[in-house]
Write a structure and sequence with these properties.
Elements (H helix, E strand, L loop, with lengths): L17 H4 L16 E4 L1 H6 L5 H9 L4 E2 H8 L3 H13 L3 E4 L2 H17 L1
Antiparallel strand pairs: 1-2, 1-3
Helix pairs in contact: 4-5
């Protein structure tokens, strides 16, 4: 422990602050996305995922199946705003596409309800 009781050296969270991941931006270059918006990786995104930085690569591989913005934020362990910025950038670059299906929306809602119940 550091003098004064601060256990910063033993911190288990991310070592990079969220604003560093987005370059200090609070909005993406693309459109504004709601937390329940589903996204899926495009063929282009899959083809170049291994050449992207960690956060983008993680999003592109995780979104092979449609995921909501909230699910991506949880997967990356970042605030929803950070996930929105990163995902919005990937949508604008054509690496992710917004997935629109009421059947899948119902599945996401059911998973969210089950997740809340398990808390």
């Amino acid at each position: 422990m550091i003098e004064g009781g601060d256990a910063y050296g033993q911190h288990e969270g991310p070592l990079v602050r969220p604003y560093m991941v987005t370059g200090g931006r609070t909005r993406s270059d693309g459109e504004s996305l709601a937390l329940e918006t589903l996204v899926t990786t495009t063929g282009r995104g899959l083809a170049i995922a291994d050449r992207r930085r960690f956060e983008h690569r993680h999003i592109l591989t995780a979104c092979r199946d449609p995921l909501s913005i909230a699910e991506v934020a949880a997967e990356l362990e970042v605030p929803a705003g950070v996930a929105r910025v990163l995902i919005g950038d990937l949508v604008a670059e054509g690496m992710l596409r917004i997935f629109d299906s009421t059947d899948t929306n119902e599945q996401v809602i059911r998973r969210l309800i089950d997740g809340v119940r398990s808390l």
